[in-house]
Amino acid sequence: MPRPDKTDELTKTLEEKILILDGAMGTTIRSYGLQEKDARGKQFADAPKDLLNNGDILSLTQSEVISDVHCKFLEAGSDIIETNSFSGTSIAQSEFFIEDPRESGAGRKDPDFYQKVIDDPFLKNLAWEINLQSAQLARSACDAAETKTGIKRYVAGAIGPMTVGLNNAAVDPDDPGFRTVTFDQVYEDYKRQIRALVEGGADILMVETIFDALNSKAALVAAQDVFEEDGFNLPMIISAAVGRGGETMISAQKIEAFWNAVAHIKPLAVGLNCSLGPDEMRPFIAELSNVADTFVSCYPNAGMPDALSKTGFPFSPQDMQDKLLDFSKAGFINLAGGCCGSTPKHIAAIAKAVKDVTPRKRPVIEPMLRLSGTEPYNHTTNKNFLMIGERTNVAGSPVFRKMIQENRLEDALAVARQQVDNGAPVIDICFDDGLIDGVDMMTRFLNLVQSEPDITKVPITVDSSKWEIILAGLKCMQGKGIVNSISLKEGEETFKQQARTIMKFGAAAVVMAFDENGQAATYEEKIRICERAYHILVDKVGFNPQDIIFDPNILTVATGIEEHNNYAVDFFKATKWIKKNLPGAKISGGVSNVSFSFRGNNPVREAMHAAFLYHAGNSGMDMGIVNAGMLEVYDEIKPDMLKHVEDVLLNRDSDATERMLDFAEQFKGIKKKTQKEDLAWRDEPLEKRLEYALLKGIDTFITEDTEEARQKYDKPLHVIEGPLMDGMSVVGDLFGAGKMFLPQVVKSARVMKKSVAYLEPYMEKEKEIKIAAISKELMAGDSNLTDTSARLKAEKSLTAGRILMATVKGDVHDIGKNIVGVVLACNGFEVIDMGVMVPCEKILEVAAARQVDVIGLSGLITPSLDEMVNVAKEMERRGLNTPVLVGGATTSPAHTAVKIAPHYSGSIIHVLDASRSVPVTTALLSDEQRETLLQDTKEKYQRLRDNFNKKDKPTISIEDARSKKIDIDWESYSPPVPEFIGTRIIANQSLRELVNYIDWTPFFHAWELRGVWDR
Are residues 201 and 177 in the same domain? Predict the structure, then answer.
């Protein structure tokens, strides 16, 4: 009989105090000095293998020892104790009772082997008895302690990671797609364990020491199914084991990516345990505390293993107490305990230390679509269009389809990798083809993808019209991906069932505007179906609105059928309506559909895609499946082409289609011009050629154009600061306006990088000439100087300061940082470039070791902003005062002033671009200029904060505002009639006469000088 749901009770308690977990069962058991015969007992006297290291079996053979361990932890102050069931599955127990086929030469362990394990009656019964007895022992100990002390105590059913991993490609390096066990087998085994723990009296289910995120997903899906099938609910705690890089041990998921993948089950708490000592765990528990909107648990090892210490781990109770107290006071945790090496004495010390510390307050996290591979992807409302790579879709790429049909999976992986390298934040994978076994291929290919770090870092869209293929894909995704798609086509019940399954796996869902009556074509049909689907998902299924992605159907225009003329307009209108009326929902679609009438006519299709995306983006479209190779830059579409395309898309007049068809004839059969063929731009002036090359991502002539610019400008640096920066500014403006997209920007960045790389040797040569001249001068004045010592002095005299630069954790973009680094280096600064995705701890570690004068933080995407705040907080905690420069596409003076600067008592200055980096850095390191710069910045940031805070003034409701409107009797109102209508030219008007009538208020507002003119 399940225990009552204690979620509300535990939530209330956790809001009031930090709850104490127990310590290490294995460490404490070893203190009893048990031998092999004790572990076996009478029940397992004839077991085929040694059982001394099978701690779970002791619940059956040494139950009094396990009960005593529980009592010791409860006496030490544990509020929650775990059952002795960490390895309580048939799969884990098979290691002790079933012969390994490799030992007899019978082959490797594989799904067939583990199916026998799952079906084995002895192992089934053994696993059930271990979990049942373990839960009963913990239940009895808790009940006795609660009766004795009057303090509530809880039993957490411990669910370990198993001895095999669904994501472990290292099992067979020659066959990285091979897995020893299937998702269904792991799921089934966990399901039995959960039912036994519940039967034995567990209050909480704790899925812990997660090193393989896919195994944990199997456990979480199993738990949800048990709750649903058996009609009850228990709170859950999820705890991951991370390595020194802050990634899960086998699946290499970063902290936030892991949280994005499991947050859907709304656990009572999420946390970290095992793998690290508390000293190394601090930055990772801090990160988890920042991103998780639930309670946070932390029970680290007592340091890293140390064979010379008494418990095998070096941290004493006092050491653990100090570290966990630090975590508690910093507001990181709500539950504290210990893992390997933690004895009852450790737990007693922790309990005493945190007793009166105020628990962490759960943060309010902005609702948004949060996805993940091994890295997180959070799609904020102000983020640019999410372009989903379609080249791994057999329907969208004949080349990819042929690779799959010919089983050339390495080549297919290269296609996926290329999409990620080109900036696709999500890739769409589809195997819907009559000649392909979709279920088998989806499983094999995703297993291969999971073994490729460069690919699996991004979220996956599992794309299929067949539910069984979607399900196969869900069972291979360790992160949080997207399902494309489900619909109401087969009725509401099927729709709800599929949505519930997607929700259990934690994926987002594309919902097609399709119901029992067919596909929505008109505006009215689109909004009717989407509204119905939204309310079913949100109100009946409990789906997170941010995880709903509507596809209102991008249909083909210019077909010659009059009813089709308004298809694009209807899509734009429906998109606006959905964004306004269905809160949280996103909009997606297959963009290439719109131009299908012109298949084979690439120039027209490219223009149509760019124009469609521009208008759809302005209407609120968030993402789409797009071939970035068939996409023109909106501002680069020729005016006559743009007019014809937009006349069709916007259905401006009745003959737009006919005119478009006639116009398109001139491009029919013309393939996209190669860079060599389309050379009209080569006749433009040098600066325009450089801008065009950057804009179009053409690197064919960039070396010769850069050389021409080097010859024209006084210094190589001036080429970077001049035409190259000007060109990248145009790219940035178009990107911000939704007229360029990330894959195109990535191409631009590569051209920029190639140009800068060409100039670098010349800039280095300039530097060498300066050093040689100074060295010569020094040696002339001091005959004791050697060539080496003179050179060192010369180099030092040219060094204006030492700057550390890094793109912060969570961001892989570095073009802006690289340009700033080159500019600073050319102006005498020593630049230490740490690259991209740099954790806070590494930045500060290197900054201290190299004694840098300034730290530069860069970021292109929105999550970078949160990480910059984290760096500022950590610098303040460490008592640092090194100046910090902040830059990147998403940064701004306002964000720096409002969100970052308040967390750091040192100086933090936003730098707009590379041209400002040198004067700002020079002033920071100048005794004469520093104070003026800091004071000006302080005053400017205070104004920005004041202006920001004014926006938060309370407002009345729209209903109240309307009730107070001024009533005007328009019937009796006669508007004034102007004395003169038309154009009147006033010649020779003196400005001196007009100046006193000018209201300068708007002018000063534009310069952020608030107030009203002349006051």
Answer: yes
